[in-house]
Write a structure and sequence with these properties.
single chain; alpha+beta; five-stranded mixed beta sheet; 8 strands
Length: about 210
């Protein structure tokens, strides 16, 4: 599931992005001045934006990244919604969420390389993504389906000349898992340099 940001958010107005986005909060995510609790922040974002409880999904931490266009570092998460169907999810969100103003709408895509990658490159999508979104979705596909299966689709599209004006995405080692929602956390610093997104080294943390 992907989300389109509303015009009322501070960063990325109108852009298509991950299912939920949350910034670190000193009071909520670093109690007593401790190091930020990234999983707590991700769970808070999923609760505030999608009305999901931790017992409704499995949450995995993917790589860290730097989004220089927004002067932010961020970390990517992948959430698997277990037995919840799309209809149940839509009904759940339809009951009202705390931060409903952050999203203009949602879109649903079969999470397979052959479906997701062409969707990312659709003419009405390819220039409308938040800077880190294509990297997040690529890494999520690799985590679930493996690098070979994901890159095969990309290479086929390259042979067809469909990616001539689309920025390249970075690639990473194979992983296994499942997915439905993607989440990113971010924090800002400094002024805006040139646009780019550089994924860091993948790191597993306990859930």
């Amino acid at each position: 599931m992907v989300a389109r940001r509303s015009d009322r958010v501070g960063v990325g107005e109108g852009e298509w992005n991950s299912s939920a986005n949350e910034g670190l909060h000193r009071e909520f995510d670093s109690p007593g001045g401790e190091a930020p609790q990234l999983f707590r922040a991700a769970e808070r974002g999923l609760a505030e934006e999608l009305q999901l409880r931790p017992d409704q999904y499995d949450l995995k931490l993917l790589p860290f990244a730097v989004v220089t266009e927004n002067s932010q570092w961020c970390c990517f998460f992948l959430a698997t919604l277990g037995r919840m169907t799309r209809r149940q999810f839509e009904q759940n969100v339809g009951r009202g969420v705390q931060d409903a103003f952050e999203h203009r709408g949602f879109d649903f895509v079969e999470f397979e390389p052959a479906s997701t990658i062409p969707y990312l490159l659709r003419p009405d999508r390819r220039d409308a993504w938040a800077p880190a979104a294509p990297v997040l979705f690529y890494l999520s596909l690799v985590h679930v389906h493996g690098r070979w299966a994901t890159d095969q689709v990309i290479e086929e599209l390259e042979r067809e000349g469909s990616r001539s004006s689309v920025r390249k995405v970075s690639r990473c080692p194979d992983r296994t898992g499942g997915s439905v929602c993607t989440t990113s956390l971010s924090t800002s610093s400094g002024g805006p340099p040139r646009p780019s997104c550089s994924p860091g080294t993948p790191r597993e943390l306990p859930g």
